[in-house]
Design brief:
Length: 336
């Protein structure tokens, strides 16, 4: 797995971050999607394939994700890994137990570091925007974390379509001498293309690295769904009543047709090609991969070995109609 720059920062990361949002997550039926034993197996497999960029959040699994990552890191050299976490969601049942207010941020950064068993996180995202807290307040508080060494870099997650809010926050940071946002984490994949246009243009203008979540469209781009039989008991469709209306559409199946054609041409799986498309995108640092099993994870990590031609990249980009700008000057990161 190659090492690539984390946006315009001086930190290098492996090109496929590992997402841990399923760690300790309880379903509505009361089962746990990924338990502690399986979490360690997945982290072991990720490490064995050269992965060193781990993504979590304070609310994943009610804190279990961070705690299990911390336990796993305790047997390793912390300096070998880049760890990203996120902050915003409620953690206490009181008015100051959520958002980006100073009281909540300071309490939660301490809790994040305690669960991870580390003195610092490499990247801290604001998980959502907080319109009730002045930008100057939370940017100053976040800057204080960087000054103290508890956080190395700042990011903003899931902020589309509010590109202007990122610009405003970075303008405040520039004016006040605070640490700016240098990375964003939006949803982006071959069927969810809403960030193309103003958001990606903002990222280019602000020189922000893009680390997409849901690169496989909640599993749709793995190719396990069929037009004639959309039922799949072991799938997101069985868990989410809105999945069918969001993903199982004629327009998206047309994208899947093109994806499967290209996958056949390069002798790879649809999931690997969908990830490779993002890896070849010149604004993407690396898409966050997740998995329920080691086999799924290893398949996804195989995307780093998939090479796409200019024509294949363009065919995939053009597979979904919409008001998308031309994003294909040339495949990113050379001819991989």
């Amino acid at each position: 797995m190659d090492w690539v720059p984390l946006g315009r920062t001086g930190t290098m990361v492996t090109e496929l971050p590992f997402g841990t949002w399923r760690f300790g997550r309880e379903t509505d039926e009361g089962s746990v999607e990924i338990d502690e034993t399986r979490a360690y197996e997945l982290l072991d497999a990720y490490e064995a394939h050269g992965g060193r960029f781990i993504d979590t959040a304070d609310m994943y699994g009610g804190g279990k994700s961070e705690r299990w990552i911390g336990n796993w890191l305790a047997d390793r050299d912390r300096e070998d890994f880049v760890v990203a976490s996120k902050i915003y969601w409620p953690t206490r049942d009181d008015p100051n137990g959520r958002g980006l207010g100073r009281k909540h941020l300071r309490r939660q950064v301490d809790a994040i570091l305690d669960r991870l068993g580390t003195d610092y996180v490499d990247l801290l995202y604001v998980h959502r925007w907080d319109d009730e807290t002045p930008v100057e307040e939370f940017m100053r508080t976040l800057d204080g974390f960087v000054d103290s060494g508890r956080v190395h870099h700042l990011g903003a997650s899931t902020l589309w379509p509010n590109a202007w809010k990122v610009v405003r926050a970075n303008a405040v940071a520039d004016r006040r001498g605070y640490e700016p946002f240098t990375v964003v984490q939006p949803r982006y994949n071959l069927v969810n293309r809403e960030i193309e246009g103003p958001f990606l243009e903002m990222c280019e203008s602000e020189d922000l690295g893009v680390v997409p979540w849901s690169p496989l469209g909640e599993g749709f781009l793995t190719g396990k769904y069929d037009r004639d039989d959309v039922s799949n008991a072991d799938s997101r469709a069985a868990e989410d009543d809105s999945f069918e209306s969001k993903y199982l559409t004629d327009e998206n199946f047309a994208v899947l047709d093109t994806l499967q054609e290209v996958a056949s041409e390069v002798d790879a799986t649809p999931a690997q090609v969908a990830l490779a498309w993002l890896l070849h995108h010149d604004q993407v640092v690396g898409p966050i991969v997740g998995a329920r099993t080691v086999d799924q994870l290893e398949e996804n990590l195989g995307a780093v070995d998939v090479s796409l031609s200019d024509d294949q990249f363009e065919r995939l980009a053009a597979a979904k109609s919409g008001p998308f700008p031309d994003i294909v000057d040339s495949p990113a990161r050379g001819d991989r």
